[in-house]
Amino acid sequence: MLQLQVFAFNPLQENTYILFDETRECVIIDPGCYDAEEKYELTSFIEHHQLTVKMLLNTHCHVDHVLGNAFVKEKYKVKLFIHEKDEPVLKAVKVYAPHYGFFQYDEATADAYLQEDDYVHFGNQKLKILFTPGHAPGHVVFYHEGQKIVIGGDVLFYNSIGRTDLPGGDFSTLIESIHTKLFTLPDDVTVYPGHGPETTIEFEKQTNPFCAIKH
């Protein structure tokens, strides 16, 4: 059975996720840990639960989601997987990170690319990759069909959506991603976003002021 642990890291309160199961294999998604205390919180959870980190995944590569990439890669000797279209976004972080106050950002490069409709495998679990651009050009989400869970990054939030005013963002593309990739999932799927509390597909289809589908 898939289990999930979330941490809210860095001043932007980004949600970092650890997904694991009874095999004690795990993946880390969007490590936003920046300072020593946050890195300790992440590693302590992994050590306490005796987890083996199999890979590092980014939904997208904005600064608040990648601050801990280099730390995780070095600490656990794992590869970083992103969508190829977000590689320029990842490479740009070192240029603008100081403008957000992240003067100690340690750059990490991608080792492999995620493709739509491929699967990420760890333990007894598999996550389907859905390509969901709009907030970032190479944004993906990870869907666990068996337990109806989406790790959604900055696409769909509780009664909100990802911002589209950053380089590579596009409002109409984001709405299309939500309607064609997320709102076509079962209504009882839970979305765990990159910021804030979880929500469900049904709730957002009915109430989201930006993208609800009128019934």
TrEMBL record:
- Required co-factor? Zn(2+)
> Which terms does the record give in the GO molecular function aspect?
hydrolase activity; metal ion binding
UniProt keyword Hydrolase present: yes
Q: Fetch the InterPro entries from UniProt.
A: MBL_Glyoxalase_II, Metallo-B-lactamas, RibonucZ/Hydroxyglut_hydro
Locate the Metallo-beta-lactamase domain: which residues? 13-195
Q: Which UniProt keywords apply?
A: Hydrolase, Metal-binding, Zinc
Q: SMART domains of this UniProt entry? A: Lactamase_B (SM00849)
Record keyword Zinc present: yes
* PANTHER family reported in the protein's UniProt record: HYDROXYACYLGLUTATHIONE HYDROLASE GLOC
Protein name listed in UniProt? MBL fold metallo-hydrolase
Species of origin reads Pseudochryseolinea flava
